[in-house]
Design brief:
21 strands; alpha/beta; 8-stranded mixed β-sheet; 5-stranded parallel β-sheet; binds cytidine-5'-monophosphate; 2 domains; Rossmann fold; 408 residues
Length: 408
């Protein structure tokens, strides 16, 4: 694990889940790592565990109320002092409140007043976890840059098996660490990310498309923003909210995506083409809905513009990164695309592998650079995969700009 940065103040928010007892262990681990930890508990958390336990272990007062006559603006002073807010366990209730800006107790008021980065580790019953409103709230928080450490599958307090168990301490600690150690290593860069599918209309109600949720591209946009870059996201149709502080241009077709990429390309220093662009489109688009008349319908298709390959001649010293979603012969096909499109890096995944590809929150990718060197990443969340892709890009940038280095 990375080392814990010196003298960091973490606010540990504990909410009313049966997993609240596990926050004691999280507190201990944070303290052992050298963090200063202030614990804030909601009133339902106190039904599960006493504030005294946290007070003794943190060697600091535990705060539970917004209304304490001795310190009227505690939520503001704490909000300014802390380097990170960790809410573990986070109930469906606290997630719903924070995602909707409700501030009706000390913890939620503090979150509203603070601009510190936030990590949340949800824990709840499987049915609650799958509740669509909860999932929508989580994607709102995700869009705002909150790092969600997803719960795991296993035996739940209800006696049922399902997803909802608080993530292991190790994972929560490592999320806290990576958030605290986050480098601004893309400051000064303008990163253009494409994401999602394109849709190529046949008629006013039908289109050809590729399967793509846009999650990988959105995770990259968010991660690049977190590392200090200006980020422009050119997105095909998705249901995802625009990540905070990212400029988004919405497009539908490959031709529109090409136009948007060309529009922003002069300002771009790093292009990441994560979009699943349709390779073919109908040669003719009917103005009227096609009628079900013939027993066989022949469609005539023509290739769409290859956005990446077309930019090859204008790229200058920009870093260009592409994606290759394959169903076999992964490395061979990825290498061919890398060469054909003149890329610095290609991110290849075999979408037939379990845990990789469309609509999932995880991915399994192999990175290949222009020297043919490959790095196979394990199954990771798309957020973590995005960070690893950016780590590789930062390395490539350092290597491609020797003038930036001081040679002795
Ligand atoms: O579709 P294909 O596997 O060739 O995509 C490889 C890379 O090329 C991806 O990064 C994709 O975004 C990009 N691409 C493109 N223009 C196309 C098709 C794909 O830029 N028309």
């Amino acid at each position: 694990m990375e080392s814990f940065p010196h003298d960091k103040h973490v606010l540990l928010g504990v909410t009313g889940s049966i997993a609240a007892y596990k926050s004691v262990l999280i507190l201990r681990r944070l303290m052992e790592a050298g963090a200063r930890v202030t614990v804030v508990m909601t009133s339902s958390a106190q039904q599960f565990i006493a504030p005294l336990t946290f007070q003794v272990l943190s060697r600091r007062p535990v705060y539970t109320s917004l209304f304490d006559p001795s310190d009227e603006i505690r939520h503001l002073t704490l909000a300014e002092q802390v380097d990170l807010i960790l809410i573990a366990p986070a109930t469906a209730n606290i997630i719903g409140k924070i995602a909707n800006g409700i501030a009706d107790d000390l913890l939620t008021t503090l979150v509203t007043a603070s601009r510190a980065p936030m990590v949340m580790a949800p824990a709840m019953d499987g049915d609650m976890w799958n509740y669509p409103v909860l999932q929508r709230n989580l994607s709102v928080l995700d869009g705002l840059g909150v790092h969600i450490v997803p719960p795991e599958e296993g035996l739940l307090a209800s006696g049922k098996e399902g997803v909802g168990r608080l993530a292991p301490e190790e994972k929560i600690l490592s999320a806290v660490l990576s958030r605290l150690n986050r480098r601004e290593d893309l400051a000064g860069e303008t990163v253009l990310v494409t994401a999602g599918p394109t849709q190529e209309p046949l008629d006013p109600v039908r289109y050809l498309t590729n399967r793509s949720s846009g999650k990988m591209g959105y995770a990259l946009a968010r991660a690049a923003r977190g590392r200090g870059a200006r980020v422009i996201l050119v997105s095909g149709p998705t249901h995802l909210p625009c990540p905070a502080n990212v400029e988004r241009a919405l497009v539908q077709t490959a031709a529109e995506m090409r136009d948007a990429v060309h529009r922003y390309f002069p300002e771009t220093t790093l292009l990441i083409m994560a979009a699943a662009v349709a390779d073919y489109r109908p040669r003719l688009r009917s103005e009227q809905k096609l009628k079900k008349e013939a027993s066989t319908l022949f469609l005539e298709l023509e290739p769409t513009p290859d956005i990446l390959a077309d930019l090859r001649s204008e790229r200058g010293d920009r870093i260009m990164v592409g994606f290759a979603a394959e169903t076999g012969n992964l490395l061979k096909r990825a290498r061919a695309k890398l060469e054909q499109k003149g890329l610095d890096l290609i991110v290849a995944n075999d979408v037939t592998q379990e845990g990789a590809g469309f609509d999932l929150d995880t991915n399994i990718v192999t990175l290949m650079n222009a020297r043919g060197e490959t790095t196979a990443l394990p199954k990771l969340s798309k957020a973590e995969t995005a960070e690893r892709i950016l780590d590789e890009i930062v390395k490539l940038k350092a290597g491609s700009r020797p003038k930036d280095r001081t040679l002795r």
